[in-house]
Design goal:
alpha+beta, six-stranded antiparallel β-sheet, three-stranded antiparallel β-sheet, 47% helix, WH_DNA-bd_sf, DNA binding, Tscrpt_reg_IclR_N
Length: 261
């Protein structure tokens, strides 16, 4: 029996090491893509010597990248993520998350992508409230009005410049039509990591949106929640920022994506 116990203990060691490696990788997030050894140790609770040894080995294997004292998830992980994502239908990943957001907020959750200078709703989970916005899959909307459009512009410089170079038509009394004002709002969206808008595309409606990225840090689209301002005043939108940004981060992770620097 002692010999068997020893064999069992030895066979478990690789699993224990794998668990620790997973803990280290889980310490990184889209909000914290770069960490020091000390921050990894604090996040994992592993002994400092263990973190140092494993991080050194993970850097050597390409699982992590290290520049000075800053450590990031390595490009080898992105290569694997791309292989995992190949052939995956994005909408099969997006739809369950939209339903989760709809159920958590009670409002309509949508996923938008840019198509030919517009934003188009490619997936949605509609609110169960009788009072709702007019939205459906396939609907084309202007990029310069609304939270999802703001997000799509914020992470696509070329698209932003093309949009800002054209006349910005007023849709409501509060649509942003000054290119320089919109440029500043787009820059602020990129800094914040999300956008909140009110009555830009439709009077009496509000929206909150956040970006989703792929393994090449390219923008996949914007996840958004929207509804009547009477149910979604700005304060309520601000309360939902962590929820929606978390959903965007979940989608990015599932797609094997990375947040751009």
């Amino acid at each position: 029996m002692p010999a068997d116990d020893g064999a069992t203990s030895a066979s478990q060691k690789p699993l224990l090491v794998l668990g620790k490696i997973t803990e280290i990788l889980d310490a990184f997030s889209l909000a914290r893509p770069s960490l020091t050894l000390g921050e990894i140790q604090q996040a994992t609770g592993l002994p400092t010597s263990t973190v140092q040894r494993l991080v050194t080995n993970m850097v050597a294997q390409g699982l992590l990248d290290r520049t000075g004292d800053q450590i990031r998830v390595g490009l080898r992980m992105a290569y694997w993520a791309a292989a995992a994502r190949k052939g995956v239908d994005v909408l099969t990943i997006v739809n369950p998350v939209l339903r989760e957001v709809r159920d958590a907020t009670g409002e309509t959750a949508c996923f938008f992508r840019e198509e030919q200078g517009y934003r188009v709703c490619v997936a949605m989970a509609e609110t169960r409230h009788a009072l709702r916005r007019d939205m459906y899959v396939g609907k084309l909307l202007p990029l310069h009005a609304g939270s999802a459009g703001r997000v799509l512009l914020a992470w696509d410089d070329g698209l932003a410049e093309r949009t800002l170079s054209r006349p910005l038509e007023p849709i409501t009394g509060t649509t942003v039509t000054d290119p320089e004002v919109l440029r500043e709002l787009v820059a602020q969206t990129r800094k914040d990591g999300y956008a909140i808008t009110t009555a830009e595309r439709e009077d009496g409606s509000s929206g909150l949106a956040a970006p989703v990225f792929d393994s090449a840090t390219e923008l996949v689209g914007a996840i958004a929640v929207s509804g009547p301002t009477i149910r979604m005043p700005r304060a309520r939108c601000e309360e939902w920022v962590d929820l929606l940004v978390g959903a965007a981060e979940q989608l990015t992770r599932t797609l094997g994506g990375r947040f751009p620097l």
